[in-house]
Amino acid sequence: MKVIAVIPARGGSKRIPKKNIIDFMGKPMIAWTIQAAYESKIFDRVIVSTDDNEFAAISKQYGCDVPFLRDSSSDDITPVSLATIRAVEQAEKFYNEEYDIVVQLMANTPLRTSKDIVQHFSNFIEQKNYFQISSFKFGWMNPWWSFKLLSNDGHEWMLPDGVSKRSQDLPNLYCPTGAIWIANKKMLLKEQTFYGNGFKFYEIDWKSAADIDDYDDLEFTKAIYHLLNTTNL
User: What CATH number labels 3-138+173-230?
Assistant: First the structure.
């Protein structure tokens, strides 16, 4: 079995410009994912898929292959799965080798560790999954009580069945995170998405799951980092 890790890192982020290379606790954000991938010791290849020369240069500084720049799927509309698929196709041609398993590691989840990657990969293999997507359990932000504000100053409950119930009486809800997505390559090419037929969710610790998309996410993830490095949590 040959396993490739693809780290998507588009250069055109808008909510946080150049998000994937901004400083996060003393290193470019993408460096955390690169190091976790190599420390897991499960990949035959680790590549960064980017359309940005600066991102490529920084990735190389941290020891990661960037054998080519992304030749498609670099807009802010195309699903990231398609960018990863294209990177795998380019890599197979460039290295003249074929992969059996594809692991997508988003660069904006810097607290995901090598241990998380190994655990998720082991479950993927043991369960003989075709597709596996990391997810975390909601905690104090209870989506059962979520609502949206209306233009007339009113509101609309998103999950009306949960409004009148105590939190301890409600079932747990979970949310996908971009930390670790895994797929059988042949099935990924066929389905063109990690949400392919029969996909499974696999839980990751909420602290490892933090996705950074805007500045609030960034501050929250920094707070988790400090929590992890000042306590035994």
Answer: 3.90.550.10
